[in-house]
Structures are given as C-alpha cells and as structure tokens.
Amino acid sequence: MVEIKTNESLAAMRESGRVVARALAAVREKAAPGVPLTELDRAARAVLTEAGAGSPFLDYHPEWAPVPFPAVVCVSVNDAIVHGIPDGTRLAPGDLVSVDCGATLGGWAGDAAVSFTVGPARPEDTRLVAAAEEALAAGIAAAVVGNRIGDIAHAIGRVCRDAGYGIPDGFGGHGIGRAMHEDPGVPNEGRPGRGMKLRHGMVLAIEPMLIGGGTDEHYTARDGWTIRTSDGSRASHAEHTVAITDDGPRVLTAL
Known about the structure:
The chain is 28% helix and 23% strand. With 255 residues, it is of the alpha+beta class.
C-alpha cells in the first residue's frame, strides 16, 4: 500500500531530509587519504545525535542479510556498488566513494546518497559520477503528478545506457515515509507510461546506480551485504528523497 502524505507530513519529512543532507556533507568533509571508513560512520553518527535523529540503517536486518547492518551509513568504495560496511579500511588517493545515509526524525525517514573521489580524480571516475547525478536529475524531473513510475525508470535508464554504463538488476529506488522502504518500487530502467500513476503526496527515494564497465553483472561479497561489480569496474550511486507535489518534484534531502 502506498501512503499519501499530507502537506504537514511533507514538511516533517523535509526536516529529516535536512539531517541526512548534513550527515552526508560531514562525511564528505571527513573523507581524505588515510582516513578509515569507520571515521566516516562516526562523522555521520555525530550529526544524527546532534539533531536528535535515529538511523534506519543501524541494525537493519532484512531477511536476505546474514547479520544486522552495523553502521549508520553505507560506504561503498571503487568496485562496491551499494551496501558497503564501513570498516577499518583506509581511504587511498583516487578512491571512488559512494555514501548512502538515512535518518529518522519525528517518525519520518529520509534517505540519500552521494558519490565522490578522494583526492585527484581519474577522468573516467569524474564522468561516472557526473552520469549518476545526471540520471538522478532526469529521474527527479520525471517525478511529476500524472506521470508514472515507468517514466522515472525510463528517464534514469536512458541516461545510464546512453553513457555506456551498466545498471545492476534488482536494485533501485523505493517509496519512503514512516519507514525507510515502502511501496512502490522505483526501478532504474523501464518503459515510459507504465506502472503506478504519480499523485500529490507520494514520496520516493530515487537512486540510480551505475556500473562503469558497462555490464549489469554484480555479486554479493562475503560479508553478505556489500554488492560489487563482477568485472571489477568502479560504480557510482546518487540518491535523493523526492516528494511528488502539484507544484512539481520537491527534493527533501538537499541542503
């Protein structure tokens, strides 16, 4: 079932979204060569604590995962696409880092992700990150009243495929509200004009994920969480929580 949010609920979700945005900014500021991934998690935790917010990631335990998730952010480096567990691994110059963060505040969730390089960026990484951001912008632009989920999926997929990148099958966006994951699912590729019709008050987490090598193949690492590219190529991830409104899409997780 899809919950239609009131205007008051959308305003409350904007507050949780601001916390997510601040946490991602703090992580990005902390990231530097030699910094362990656990420090990025600590930076995000400090923002959540200061805001009085909870984490929908910490101790999240879906049925497919062997253990609960142990952090408040997913940190996926280089060939990791999503769900990377921040451990003692230290960042190196040129690493491509994707950080996914959520927050709950006042009973409402927010969810967003950003990718960036540590130190000097390889040109191919710059293009990959830019394509993920372009795909996200295209998906958001399609998130208007009267359109359908397939229009968002098609907009995202067209950017990814036109740029020559792969799209990991089975991963995509989702509804969000009182829980981090709600109906409907939002694929990163699809046919326009198909799927659920968009209405004022729907809120979606739109999140393209791109595989730099151009294939769609991926696998789950031994930790049971981290999703990696099968060809070892790098990946990029971008995400915002977006409200569908009569005045157009409203990004709730922007600074």
